[in-house]
């Protein structure tokens, strides 16, 4: 109530209507007409008084207090606020309210009386309408669908019962953010003006009360949702006594669309995941097979270039199987060719020795005949050159035979334990005698180094390294031989000063028929088999050999790594 001046009841006065107050008139269920007045002495908790109106329309002070009608009277900025609670059991068919305003605290006359309707007699008091609990139980028993609201109206469009709510909660899904990119999400944040309505109006309601069902689409006041409303008349004895209205927002349609898209997306995602998994499994299977084929192809040829296996891959009938069979065919042909090359040296040495012997004997006979005819004939010069060529060719055959015999000897060599330090030391002493013009410096381990293998082959390997170092060593520069033990490996190094090794040849020096020597001006032919034999011997003993340039001075360093017996290392 907006009131510039609030006047409370004076307890000393005998009347209840000499202040601001509220009048309540009602017809109770017993059909009796009663009047109640709420007239407080001060703000706070208030009760109603059941009064009897005199002929002059005044209220007696001696009224009956009704505790069942209670309320709260609170002053506000521009008046006061009164909140009441009245039991439904007290309310009958008619109910009315009237507000009395008193501004003069002396005369205390009612200045204004404003009511919901004339409250002087029962006929002018307004009717009260209360929704039917029975109808609400009936419509609720039909089931509650989220997002759908059901109304039951009488002919005056008043709400007899209501069930359901237009707003609903959408299920939370972890992919909602992704679904929102495909279809805009439905919003339940809209203003529902009819949520607490006691009367329902609209074209569809009017049409239903006239006996014809109708449907209407309309937007909410904030235009954030569209509501579809369907009204149907209720007939009793051929007359329309009311209507049933069903409301629902278009959000349900959007929800169905989102669910359809979500189901389609989920199924697509599942199918895509399964297909991706199958493709990954198939690709992994192919990768494993290809990697296995690669490993078998790499191990089919050993470090010396020999073919150790000719059957690789699988017998599958797909493309990888065809590729593996092609590799197997290539390896078979390569092994045949290697066998031919390995046997060619021995065959050449065997086949060429007889013609060489025939040529040598023929030259000797020719030399004897020429001695008888003329001792100072120029033919002697040609005979000597031919003999030198025969000797050179014989040396080449001997070298080829030596490499072939070494490969055969490695297959039948017997292993034994020997002192590597003692073996290298004795070899160095022999080199000083064999190469009197070359100085040698030995730096050997003071502790015996026990190795397992063929000592004569180790000595032959060292001979090849020393011969190579002598050929490439600078004049008056000593050759250093170092033997040390590091962990379970013996390090044997031959160091000479001279011409540096080309970087592109450091890895190829140990291949067959590879040499850095120039043949012109040399007395003996060099086929590049010396270092190749070194690699064969080191490989037989399970070691490694490498060539690199000397970091301290121009020259080369050849290092041989040989394994040591574990028992000896443990003893140390």
Tell me the layout of helices and strands.
Elements (H helix, E strand, L loop, with lengths): L20 E7 L5 E6 L5 E8 L12 E13 L2 E7 L8 E8 L10 E4 L17 H9 L6 E7 L4 E6 L11 H7 L20 H7 L4 E6 L6 E11 L2 E11 L1 H49 L19 H55 L5 H34 L3 E4 H15 L5 E4 L6 E4 L1 H18 L6 E8 L2 E9 L32 H11 L3 E6 L5 E9 L2 H6 L1
Parallel strand pairs: 14-16
Antiparallel strand pairs: 1-2, 1-6, 2-3, 3-4, 4-5, 6-7, 8-9, 8-12, 10-11, 11-12, 13-15, 16-17, 17-19, 18-19
Give a quick precis of the structure.
This protein has 572 residues and is of the alpha+beta class. The chain has helices at residues 133-141, 176-182, 203-209, 251-299, 319-373, 379-412, 420-434, 455-472, 530-540, 566-571, and strands spanning 21-27, 33-38, 44-51, 64-76, 79-85, 94-101, 112-115, 148-154, 159-164, 214-219, 226-236, 239-249, 416-419, 440-443, 450-453, 479-486, 489-497, 544-549, 555-563. The protein is built from ten helices and 19 strands.
Structure explained in plain terms:
The protein is α+β, with helices and mostly antiparallel strands and 572 residues long. It has four domains: 21-124, no CATH class; 133-257, PAS domain (Beta-Lactamase), CATH 3.30.450.20; 319-409, Signal transduction histidine kinase, dimerisation/phosphotransfer (DHp) domain (Helix Hairpins); 413-571, 2-Layer Sandwich (Heat Shock Protein 90). The chain has ten helices and 19 strands. It has helices at residues 133-141, 176-182, 203-209, 251-299, 319-373, 379-412, 420-434, 455-472, 530-540, 566-571; strands at 21-27, 33-38, 44-51, 64-76, 79-85, 94-101, 112-115, 148-154, 159-164, 214-219, 226-236, 239-249, 416-419, 440-443, 450-453, 479-486, 489-497, 544-549, 555-563. Strands 5-4-3-2-1-6-7 form a seven-stranded antiparallel sheet, with no helix packed on it. Strand 1 (21-27) and strand 2 (33-38) form a beta hairpin. Helix 5 (319-373) runs antiparallel to helix 6. The longest helix has 55 residues, at 319-373. Residues 567-572 have low confidence and may be disordered.
